[in-house]
Amino acid sequence: MKLFSRAVSAVLATVMVFSGLTITSVFAADTISCGGWFESAYATWNDSNPKGASVAYKLAGSADYTNVDSELIRAYGNTARVDIPGLKGNTDYNLKITSSDGNVIEKTVKTDAFRRDGFAHFNYTDGVGAYNDDGTLKSNAIVLYVTDENKDTVSVTSKDGTTVTGIGNILNSVGAQGASKGTYNTNNYILRKLSMDGTPLDVRFIGKVTSPEGLTEYDSVNNGGTEGDNGHMARMRDASNVTIEGIGYDATIDGWGLHYMCSSAYSQYGYGFEARNLNFQNYPEDALGMEGIQTGSQITAPVRRCWIHRNSFEAGYCANPAESDKKEGDGSCDFKRGEYYTMEYCTYRNCHKTNLVGSSDSSMQFHLTMANNHYIDCQARGPLARQADVHMYNNYYEGQTDYAVNPRANAFIFAEYNVFNRVKNACQVKSGGVCKSYNNFFISCSGNQQQTEVANKSDTVSSSSTYANFDTNPSLSYIPNGNYKLLTDSKEIMADVKAYAGAMKENPVRAEEVNASIIDSDYLPTAPVTVPYEKAYNKTTITSTGKQTVDNIVINPTKVAPDSITIKDLGLVFTLDKTADVTMEGMQATAVPILYSEGGKEYINTSGTAVLPAGTYVIQSSIFDPGKKVYKEAKVVSLKFAVHDSSKDTTTSESTTETTTTANVVSSGTYNIGTANTGANDCIEKEANVANIDYALSDIAENSGTLKNSDDSAISFTVDGKTKFIPAFTGDNLTITNVSNGTSVEVVAGGSVELEKGTYSVTSKGTSNISSLTFDVSSVTTETTTETTTQTTTTTTTETTTETTTAFPIVTVDLTQEAGVNPVGTTPNGKAEVIYQEASDDYLLNDTSSNCAATWTNSFEPISSGKVVVRGYAIPMKVSGKWAFVQIKGLDENGNVVDIADLASDSQKAKNIALRTGGSKYISSSNGIVANHKYEYEFIIDLDNQTVQLTVDGTVLNGTISAKSVNAVYNVTATKDTDRNLVVSKPVVGVPDNGETTTETTTTTTTEATTEATTVSSDYVAMGSYEWNSTALGGTAKTGTYNNMTYSLRKVDSSYVQLRSENTIKFKVAQDCTLTATFSNNGLFINGTALTSDKAYSLKADTEYTLTGDSGNTNLTKLVFATNSTETTTETTTKATTTTETTTETTTVSVQVWTPDNKTNILGSAVSGLSTSKASGRTSAFVDSIFGDGETATGAINGQNYVLLNDENIIPTATGKLKLYVIANSNGAVTNGTITTGDTAVYSGAFAARNGDTAVKAITINVEAGKTYKVSSQVMLFRAELTPTGSTETSTETTTTTTTETSTETTTMGVLKVMVNNPASSKISTVEVTVKRNGKAVSGVTALNIGSATEIAGVNEDDVITFTFAKEQAKQITNWDSNLKSVFRDKTYTLTYTVGKTVATPTMDYYDSMPAAVSLGQSTTTAAGYIRLWSVQGSD
To answer: Distances in Å between the alpha carbon of 737 and those of 660, 696, 734, 741, 749?
Structure first.
């Protein structure tokens, strides 16, 4: 034997500390290396013929040696190496190496012990795999040595004599004859037979082993494969106590992978699987996977007691993947449908889909430990966990590019003392997952950190997860008792993982030998900072960029500016040789600076002071982009070091850190972007800081600035409290990132986001053009204004009888429950079931099938009149569009089952929560559906008026319905989706309790003068009139804040704004007042209540209000807020009077309405069955009763729906009065017709013509239930109202007394403002007029101003105001159209208004329309025809 060239005459005793344990090696002169590893030993020596050498070992102090298997001695050129597995841990062994030339080398080593403190070993002492818990091989275990040379010839024999040859055939059980659906291998169920024999199997891989024969085939069912998979898997089903391990440092599974599985027929097997010390690379499908069998919600054949440790995983590879997302293989190491699993000390490098826990939202697995693993530049799944309880600790993540920890679908993760360095989305919680986080470390991370932080390890987290708080229950885990090794220092964690994670290194190292600093060695200062020390960093003090040393501080600026330097990574590095008080002042750019220890502990974020112990520290950017491999920019202004006064410390065990954040904050308002802007706070340059907003744009145009994902462009700002942020932009979505903690949210065009206090960066997902930024700072302390008003209040003693009807509580109905599938009768190809969850007292609709949906129906006796109330909650477990997951069912007029009203998501991009009616019509909110969110809902279905109101999470949505009765609440998942599960409560269904309470109240008040000091916060809308158009809003942005009203609109026009049901205007008022809205085209609702245009609605102080539009477009032009305190005059007289006191009790039955849209059955099936048409080419008008209280035509019929009656029979459903809104389908002025019953005409006379007639009257007839009434032919029916007999029942009790009393009459006065709009350039300024109030001339008003207001004082609500214009008036208006001149020349015209009431429209040539009513506090502007006469405003 050739002796090692470095001759040593004496024996050297070397003591090695290895993983906290002492290893003693007695080196001979001719050895290269020797040592103990985990329950094994290794040695290398020079040998020209390694196969001719032998090695023996024995326990130190014992007499007998044991020879190692020859396969364990391998040649590496002229170097020999032996690795000896199966040794006891923490034990001294003597090694005796006899070289091929007969030289003997003796050594003593001490092994280390594997940790067995995770779930795989929890309450289990039988040894996982082929080894005992002390590290020795089980006595009856079979050992197979596999190399690339013998992989297809190695064999194993069971006790019954069955022999199988080839490791692929041995391990791939699903490829056996009878198991494989295609061609099969020669497995012959050998693993199951070894399980039956009770024989453990230890497969020891030596060197690189490529894909053997007998594995599953590519995209095929051959050998137990699956179409769509890349194959090359050994699927080990029904094995028990199997260890797959690598020998030495280079054992590699190259190009294939392993599954450990269990079957239902042999569920007693499938346990005790260990994989250790292996390198996995180029796997086309999975590297390692474990999976059991689940039936329904039970794991019927789990894989269990699986221990994966000390393995290294590189990225997989498949040149032509069967599925497009498997080019880098599928899972690196996945666990599905099993229990008691530990994965520890594994390294994952550049892996894509790293660790999947649970194959779907319904896949269940229990009790998982993931500890001390090292993730390096991986993409995702670290892990992605569903339906599992997972303990994660001491893992180290570096450069994760997509996300790391991702619990969802009922998974509960307890993560403690993990280190996340330069990770994107370190913790991304989705769809019902929870991550309880305790003392984790985050270094320059970006994206989501959605973990739930706890102050104490024993704190519990409120969660509906089945596995919630397993970590605090000693019967469920080892955690409460502390039976596991836990490191708590970030630098120690990184060192431990770097030293010991992954497969064995050729030359193992100790943790203390590893550089675990986050600071590169060439950036380390050569001397400590001299304390005290202070320096400002700017272009004056630092004149150049790049790495340099200034006053023993290594700095690395990328930019220098007058007020700061810009840094990225390793911006400033310094060393302290003693404790110091360090103050940093920083600024945000696209990120903020953070001061870390070299172990990654955060001390100061942006700005603040901290007490730092001796050590080395770095200041660098808070955000690293793993995809681009770059740090974001941050700014440092100054550093200050002061001598620490330890006498003031309250504790000596650790330093005290006080961190304060200072930054210039952005103020509430709108900030425009673009070179054409001229405002002082507008951005007109690509790079600028304007109004405390930092702009770094890719480009800038006249009216917008551009952000691109391809560069570092961003907009940054700081808010000092809860703020609504509304960016106006087009193009790709924006990402809003909190640069302090890395959390982010995506905003779509037209959207907004609520921000908490902090610093934010705005970037684009692609290319975005931004025109303005709006900030509504709603929770920051703001200035208040005080308004002082003096008022006189006069009241009188009154006796009031008040009847109060309470709509709630409700009288509930009995429900019958039934689970089913849709389509009915389908046999599910997966699960479609309803599971009662006792812990949360609700129901899980569990659906894994792709051919049907799971359904749950709660039916009840049909309710056919009045209101029906349905309440409950629903938790959709997936974001999906057009999903009606709560449906209210009933019958239509023909007895068909119909979908009446639903809680649903719509088909928009944001998948907004919506009210769906009729199975297809969506009334949407502005809130997108959120997975795992509990939606509290209440339906109020009004069968009499055919309306529905849905309140969901406080948002009110209104719609119309078409139903005869309601009889069921129906929940459903989805037919094709296999993961659209749903949790619902049992609904509460009832009708309003109609119990009435009568309260008699006597109120006595006095006349007094009071002074009110009213403090109005800037959060409130001030009293006044507000126009709603693009001029008032300062542009066409659809979202923003206007006079403390926050709006999200569908459209902004030059004369109005437009809303639909999903759009909102939100505000609150500081005092009781009235709101008058001017709108047209469709309805407007306030907190769900319909408003009438130009009619006052009472508002309460300190109440939040939301205006919404209708399902169609609602055009809003003005909102007027008016105080309830008005000028008051009092007249008091004393007189003797005879008082008659009358008490009247009235009960009103609702009028039943028929329209072509709802087609209720009140007219009989013949009429309801007629087809609906839309009027066109018509000049007639509707009778106003369709819209208001009178019966005068006010609205053109064009575009309105009707049915055409041709001698049709009307059969009323009740006796009473029937009012028909009809117009003859003819071109004449008037057409005569009849309505008859039998031979009796109940109506004979004129029907208004469809063209020309503008004074249409509704026809009212008395009808009897069930009787037939025939209407003449060619009659257009637009609406019908049936008032049943007995609708109003009145009883009167009269008492007459004579008294002498003082009566006080109070009249509330206002000012009526009137303006004549000038239709052309008039040469005069007034129009002569006579004005009367209630028949009496108004003194002082003889003309109306043209173009400005004329005030008429002393006006009260209900006053009748008339305006009479003199003849020949037009002669004074010489520029008016000649046709208009004749209007005034020939006639005297009188226009009449009743303030606050609907009035007759005046008859006037060239007049299109006038405002129907004007109220105090309201403003109405009508631009009509040529004249454009009136703008009338009531004012206090």
So the answer is: 20, 15, 10, 9, 17
Could you give the CA distance from residue 801 to residue 824 in angstroms, rounded to a whole number?
57
CB under 8 Å to 693, separation ≥6 — which residues? Answer: 666, 671, 683, 715, 716, 717, 773
Please list, in sequence order, all residues whose beta carbon lies within 8 angstroms of the beta carbon of residue 333, skipping any fewer than 6 positions away: 286, 287, 288, 289, 308, 311, 313, 343, 346, 348, 354, 355
Query: Please, which pLDDT band fits residue 1231 given cuts at 50, 70 and 90?
Result: low
Q: What is the DSSP letter of 1401?
A: P
Greatest distance between any 2 Cα atoms in the chain: 141
Alpha-carbon span 1138 to 1134, nearest angstrom:
13
What is the DSSP-derived secondary structure letter of residue 167? Answer: H
The pLDDT of residue 1087 is: 87
pLDDT at res. 1296: 40
Q: Which of 1142, 904, 982, 1075 is nearest to 1419 (CA)?
A: 1075
Q: How confident is the model at residue 1083 (pLDDT cuts 50, 70, 90)?
A: confident
How far apart (Å, rounded) are the C-alpha atoms in residues 626 and 696?
21
CB within 8 A of 606, min separation 6: which ones?
Answer: 586, 587, 588, 592, 593, 594, 661, 662, 663, 740, 759
Which strands, in side-by-side order, build the sheet including 816-822? Answer: 816-822, 853-863, 965-972, 883-891, 897-905, 912-917, 921-928
Tally Cβ neighbours within 10 Å of residue 1269.
Answer: 23
Contact 1078, 1128 (CB under 8 A): no
Do 110 and 24 meet the contact criterion of CB atoms below 8 Å apart? yes
Residue with tokens 């109609």: 994
Q: Which two tokens stand for residue 1234?
A: 């009849």
Q: Is 120 helix (H, G, I), strand (E, B) or coil?
A: helix
pLDDT in tens, 1036-1057: 888 888 888 999 898 898 889 9
pLDDT top residue among 191 and 1412: 191
Rounded Cα distance between 705 and 768, Å, is 8
> Which stretches within 398-511 are classed as H helix?
490-500
User: Model confidence at 989, in pLDDT bands (50, 70, 90)?
Assistant: very high
- Return the closest-CA partner of residue 1397 out of 1184, 1153, 1124: 1184
Strands (DSSP E) along 1094-1127, which ranges?
1096-1099, 1104-1108, 1114-1123
Q: Is the pLDDT of residue 933 over 80?
A: yes
**Contacts for 954 with CB less than 8 Å, ≥ 6 apart:** none
Is pLDDT larger for residue 1033 or for residue 525? 525
Separation CA 913–CA 956 (nearest Å): 11
Q: Is the pLDDT of residue 385 over 90?
A: yes
Q: How far is CA 1433 from CA 1029, 1098, 1340, 1420, 1421, in A?
A: 18, 18, 19, 6, 9
pLDDT for residue 1316 is more than 80: no
What value, to the nearest 5°, has the Cα angle with vertex 150 and ends 149 and 154?
A: 175
Of the listed ranges 37-51, 117-131, 651-665, 1302-1316, the least confidently predicted one is 651-665
Token representation of residue 1239: 């031979």
Q: Are 380 and 332 in contact (CB under 8 A)?
A: no
Is the pTM here over 0.85, yes or no? no
Centroid of chain to Cα 993: 37
Alpha-carbon distance of 1288 to 623, in angstroms, equals: 72
1109 or 1151, higher pLDDT = 1109
State percent of the chain over pLDDT 70: 78
Looking at 231-309, list the stretches that DSSP marks H as alpha helix, in order from N- to C-terminal side.
none
User: Closest by alpha carbon to 532, among 586, 572, 583, 594?
Assistant: 583
For the chain, the straight-line distance linking the first and the last C-alpha, in angstroms and rounded, comes to: 114
**Contact status, residue 23 vs residue 109, Cβ threshold 8 Å:** yes
Confirm if 1229 and 1250 have CB atoms less than 8 A apart: no
Contact (Cβ atoms closer than 8 angstroms) between residue 437 and residue 415? yes
Question: pLDDT per residue over 281-332, tens digit each?
Answer: 999 999 999 999 998 888 999 999 999 999 999 999 998 888 888 889 999 9
